[in-house]
Write a structure and sequence with these properties.
With about 600 residues, the protein is α+β, with helices and mostly antiparallel strands. The protein has three domains: about 10-200, 2-Layer Sandwich (Heat Shock Protein 90); about 205-360, Ribosomal Protein S5, domain 2, CATH 3.30.230.10; about 375-610, 2-Layer Sandwich (Ribosomal Protein S8, Chain: A, domain 1), CATH 3.30.1370.100. Helix content is about 35%, strand content about 20%. Strands 5-4-3-6-2-1-7-8 form an eight-stranded mixed β-sheet. Strands 9-10-13-11-12 form a five-stranded mixed β-sheet, with helices on both faces. It has a four-stranded antiparallel β-sheet with strand order 16-17-18-22, sandwiched between helices. Strand 3 and strand 4 (about 120-130) form a beta hairpin. The chain is elongated, with a radius of gyration of 31 Å. It starts with 9 loop residues before the first helix and ends with a helix.
Length: about 600
Amino acid sequence: MSDIIRLLPDNIANQIAAGEVVQRPASVVKELLENSVDAGSTSVQLIVKDAGKQLVQVIDNGKGMSDSDARLCFERHATSKIRSADDLFAIRTFGFRGEAMASIASVAQVEMKTKQPENELGTLIRIEGSSILVHEQTAYPQGTSISVKNLFYNVPARRNFLKSNSVEMRHIMDEFVRIALAHPEVAFSFYHNDLELFNLPEETLSKRAVSLLGGSYREQLIPCKEETDFITISGYIGKPESARKTRGDQFFFVNNRYIRSNYLHHAVMHAFEELIPTDSFPFYILFIEIDPSHIDVNVHPTKTEIKFDDEKTVYAIIKACVKRSLGTHNIMPSLDFDYNVNVSGFTGMGFEQQNDRSERTTPSFTPKTFSSSDHVQKSNQSNWERMYSGLENNREEVYQESIKMFSSINGTEEDKQLNKDLLYTENTSTFQLHQKYIVTQVKSGVLLVDQQAAHERILFEKYMNMLQNKFGSSQQFLFPQTLELSAADFAMVIEMEDDIRKLGFVFSIFSNTTIVVNGVPSDVKGGNEKGLFEGLIEQFKQNRTDYKIDRQENLARALAKRSAIRAGNKLTLIEMNSMIDQLFACKTPNYAPDGNLTVVMLDMDKIGRLFM
C-alpha cells in the first residue's frame, strides 16, 4: 500500500492557522493595533471600510522594521519575542507566537510599508494568499502602515459566514475600545467609510474612559488602588447607581492585556453585594500588574483567557480593593480628571471604617401593615363592599354587544369565557390593590390584573404594529435633549435607526457618539424622555442576552418594558377600566411579552373553597 500522509503546503497550513487567529475583521484589527502598540507608537490610526470586509488599515509612528524583518514577519512562527521556552513565562508584550501576520496574509490581500528612523528608504511588500507579489524599497516616513484588503477573498465559505456590517462593526468597536482603554498614553483615531468616529489624544485613564464609554460616567468613576508584593490593582469602578442591567462596560487588563474572567468578575460582584440589584452589573476598569511568571497567557488562540498560579489570592485582593473604594467614595472630593490613576497614590479608610460605612449605606426598609393606617384600612373596606354590590340588569345588553366586538379573540374555551365575563361589566367595583393589581368583579367571580404586565402586553402589540406598518406618531420637544452614548451603543443606535424612528422617536446625529433627541412616541408620559431613550437601549441589550428574538420584536419588548406603568402608580377608575378593555382587545391578552401572566381569575367556586 502506498504512503498516504503528506506535508501540507504552506498556504494551506496558513489558512488552517487563520481559522484560529482570524475569525472576522475584528480579529485583524486586534492583531494590527497590538503590533502598533508593541512597536512603541505614540499615535495610531485605524481606517476601516465596509466594516472591515473591504479594508482594514493601521498606520503608526512606531519604530518600524528593517527590510529583512518586514519579509520575515509574514512567515509562520517568526517572532522577535521568544528565544527559549522560558520566555513564554516572561511575556509583557502582545503578539509573540508569530502566527498573526502569516495567517492574515493567507486569506487577504496585504500591503505593508515600513521604515526605521535611521534608514533613508523604507520597505514595500504586497502579498496575496501567502504569495509575495512585490518586495522593494520605497519612500516612507518613520513607522508602519499595513492594509488588509478583501478579507477571505480566496475562502468564500469563510466570507459567507461573516455577519452584517453592523454586527461586524460592533466587534471592531469592541476591540478598538479595549486597546484604547489599555493605552491612554497613546493617541488613537478611528475612521469608518471616511467618517471620523474617534480622535483620542494622549490623556489620563479617566478621560479616556469618558471619551470611549460616554459622558454618563463622568461623575460616576471611583478610583481603585491596591499594592501588594504579589499584585498591584489600579483603575476605576462605577458608583452603585451607575450599575446597568446588561454586561458590557466591565474590563479586566492583566499586564495591559484585556482578558475575560468570570471568576474575577465574581469577586467584583461580591464586593457590590447588597449595593446593587442582583440582576445588575457594575462598571469597572481594573488593571492587574503581576509578575509574568505567575500567569500563563498562552492558553487560548486569541489570548483573552489566562491562568493564574494563585487565583484565590488574586480574587481576595480584588474583592478587598473594590470594597474599600466603595466604602470611601461618599466622603471623597469630586473626581479630578487630571488625576492619573496609573501614577498617583490613593489612600482610603481602614477596613474597619469601610465595613461600618458599608453598613450605613446599605438601604433598610421597615415593613408596614394594614393596621398602621386607618385611612388605608377604611378605603380598602369601602372598595371590597363596592365589589360585592349587585350589578344592574341593563348591562346585559352591553355584554352582548361586547361579545360580538371581541368574538375574533383566539384562545381556549376557558379564555373566551374569561373575556365574556370580563366584558360583562364596566362597573364601579373596579379598584387598585396596593397600587399594583387591578381587581374587578365579573359575572363568575373576581378578576385580578397585574397592571404592569397588562400594560406591557398592550404596548408591545401596539409597537409591533408600528414597526410592521412603518408608522409612529411623535410628540416634539420645545427644547431638544442631548444624549451622550458609548461608542458601542452609538453604533447600535445607528444600526437600528430606521426601526427606532418607526416607534415615534425623533433624533439627529450631533457628533461621533452624541445624538440630539427631538421627540418621543406620542403616548409616552412626559418628564424623563432622555431616560426613556437610554432605557430603551439598555433593555434592548438585556433582551439580546436573555432571548433569541429578532430585532423588531426586541425593540417592541424593550420600549414596552421601559414605558409601561409601574407598580406604585395610582390609576383612576376610567384608566383601570380602559386598561382592561385594551388588554382583552390584544391578540394574546393573558400573557405579558416575557411570558408572565397578566390576569388571574378567581371564580366563585374557587373563592368558596378557600373558606371550606
